[in-house]
Amino acid sequence: MYNVVIGVDDNEERAMACARAVADLPGDAAEKRVTVLHSFTDNPSGASASQIASVRDVVDFFEDRGVDVEVTESSGDPADQILDAAEEMGADLIVVSGRKRSPTGKALFGSVTQTVILNAKRPVMVAGDTDD
Known about the structure:
This is Universal stress protein. The chain is α/β, with parallel strands linked by helices. The protein contains 4 helices and 5 strands, in the order βαβαβαβαβ.
């Protein structure tokens, strides 16, 4: 079983880039288990992660392909939450998204992605960038 944690924000295009990258990993769908993590930094309405469109899209994508998927939510710093979840779940891989940048900015990732890359104790895949 290949255990993957995907950090998903509110952006549906970036979330789906992560989902497609995981689906393209070698192995059958039955060999993959995906945890979709959405970390709320501000949630005054009390929404759950499964109510976020980007999370629903990713879950539907994996369910349609027969991949075992679950949703986890947290609150606090998204990078810390992704790293903690990956550690707790014994993830084989963390997947986060990149963002389209100017030529100068391409040397840098978004702050969450950069923090995850620099502090992870396991492999990190950065999925394709999209327009913001």
